Amino acid sequence: MDKFVVRSKRKKDEEESPNCQTRTATDDSGESSKTEASPTSNTSSCTQHHPPYPDIGSLQHQQTIPDNKKIAILTQKWTESHSFKFPARLFGKKNRRFQATWLKDFHWMRYSPSTDSVFCAYCVLFTSVDAKEKSFSASAITVWKNLLSLAKFHENLSQHRGSLIAGEDFLRVKKDKGDSVASMISSSHKKVAADNRYGLMKIFVILLCGRQNIPIRGHVEERSNFIAILHEIARSDDKLSDCIDWLAFRAGSRTTYLSPEIQNEIINIVGQQVQDSIINACREAKYFAIIADECTDVSTKEQLSVC
């Protein structure tokens, strides 16, 4: 009887220690296993399916992240995610796991094994600390039930699109190793300035409203004729659309150069240019005429108009 007990325990130990799948099942059930602490020949095979990029969950609250880690997180793909055994957690009455297919559906999504949660790589690395939306960046997503709807909502945020633009610019600058740092900064600044000028020139759609006697504003600023025409143009102009998203991202949705104050400033500038053009034409001409007419308004006051 004693010999039988010894052999049974030894056989059980031999089955648990080298098998990576058995070790994962033990982790899911919450029970500790002595084989984790003992060195085995298959230890490397148990961890080879982990993400190749740094654990984004451990970098989430760091103020400065090295550029090499940023590049690794943005460029390295987890091709063996389907072989990784994601831990199961109880949601309501069902055990749910993270699905590897979600990483393929959303290229910006990164899984953190240490926290069993997902993040947006671009928003974690390039969104400001005081950003309004915290999901997928400062706040990790750990609930798998509504992950698809949350991810689709996150993709449509201007904050997320701005982070994507910032990440693509970062990778482009880092890949261009032939230029000096000063040259890269200068070229990046020139590109941003050129894009901003392009967007500002498109904002002068306000002149179209003036020529056609179209009211600029409405009862609600977001539904004014000016905003509606501008966004309609942006639907067929990707550069303008990116510029509007970028301005909203950098300014925290507070200064987008589309406010009534900016509209009035543009009208005053254009009006001053028209007035200066008329004055210069009069100065250069040998003769010029002025047409004046007056009429009486409802209050019986004379109103004089000069052309």
3D structure, described in words:
The protein is mainly alpha-helical and 307 residues long. The chain has 14 helices and six strands. The protein has helices at residues 2-16, 20-29, 43-47, 56-59, 67-75, 101-105, 121-126, 147-155, 158-175, 181-203, 206-211, 225-235, 238-250, 260-284; strands at residues 89-91, 94-96, 109-112, 117-120, 292-296, 302-306. The strands form three sheets. The chain has a two-stranded antiparallel sheet with strand order 1-2. Helix 9 (158-175) crosses helix 13, helix 10 (181-203) crosses helix 13 and helix 12 (225-235) crosses helix 13. The protein is elongated.
What would you call the quaternary organization? Answer: single chain
Major β-sheet strand ordering: 1-2
Helix/strand order: HHHHHEEHEEHHHHHHHHEE
What distance lies between the first and last C-alpha atoms, to the nearest angstrom? Answer: 119 Å
InterPro entries: Znf_TTF (IPR006580)
Biased composition (Basic residues): 1-10
Biased composition (Polar residues): 35-48
Region (Disordered): 1-60
List the helices and strands and how they pair.
Blueprint: H1 2-16, H2 20-29, H3 43-47, H4 56-59, H5 67-75, E1 89-91, E2 94-96, H6 101-105, E3 109-112, E4 117-120, H7 121-126, H8 147-155, H9 158-175, H10 181-203, H11 206-211, H12 225-235, H13 238-250, H14 260-284, E5 292-296, E6 302-306
Antiparallel strand pairs: 1-2, 3-4, 5-6
Helix pairs in contact: 9-13, 10-13, 12-13
